Amino acid sequence: MPPPTPPTTFKVASYNIHKGVGTDRKTDPARILRVLTEIDADIVTLQEADRRFGARSSVLPPFMIASHTDYVPVPLDVQHDSMGWHGNAILVKNSVSIESHDIIHIPCLEPRGVVTATVGIGGTQVSVFGMHLDLSGLWRVRQAKVIAELANTARQHNPTVLMGDLNEWRRQAGVFREFGRHFSILDPGPSFHAARAIGRLDRIMHCERLVMGSCGVHRSALAATASDHLPVWAEFSLG
């Protein structure tokens, strides 16, 4: 008999890149890309990936992504110069296929949105949601409810992972209750502020069809200065 096929495994990461402005107050997109290379995730969700005003152009120039990394931005087709939607973006390795993508409008006090894509990795399709929730607790709960319901529909078809900056300082809050109805919520560790991380703002969540192998906060000398957030990551195999 042929040996059994090993399970599909992959790595994801979420990173609030603070518009490329580091803790040293320098704007350096190449430094962000070097951090992503250090992490070496297959799928990455970014927050604050576009500038806030004017044309809201991408913080990470496309030619730099193409020449300095193995990543491809998921083409959200929202604004010509932007990579994301309200700063949220998804990058995938060249070896990962992009099957579909969309943007999601959510109730908000500040300009907020959610990005989603279905990607092919190791012969399996995975649904990915990237988000950056509101500073207001009331609006965060409303947003979490909408996102959780949409992601719950997605998980009926594909293994599903959700990632982003939840802006939630409390250990037990309405945001976690909403997501926790359908998904396991990982706590990689404190990721904010990068200079002295105490806030567990950046989270990764997944459905029961994904088995978490390990997760954590990416700590390196480069990551400590590239943004005010540290990246978080997790490794999964199919359950």
Textual characterization of the structure:
The chain is of the alpha+beta class. It has one domain (9-238): 4-Layer Sandwich (Deoxyribonuclease I, Chain A), CATH 3.60.10.10. Helix content is 20%, strand content 32%. It has helices at 29-39, 62-68, 137-154, 174-180, 223-226; strands at 9-16, 43-47, 71-73, 89-93, 97-105, 113-121, 124-132, 160-165, 184-186, 202-206, 210-217, 232-238. Strands 3-4-2-1-12-11 form a six-stranded mixed sheet, with helices on one face. A hairpin with a 2-residue loop joins strand 6 and strand 7. The two termini are 23 Å apart. The mean pLDDT is 93.
Protein traits:
5 helices, globular, Deoxyribonuclease I, Chain A, 239 residues, 32% strand, 12 strands
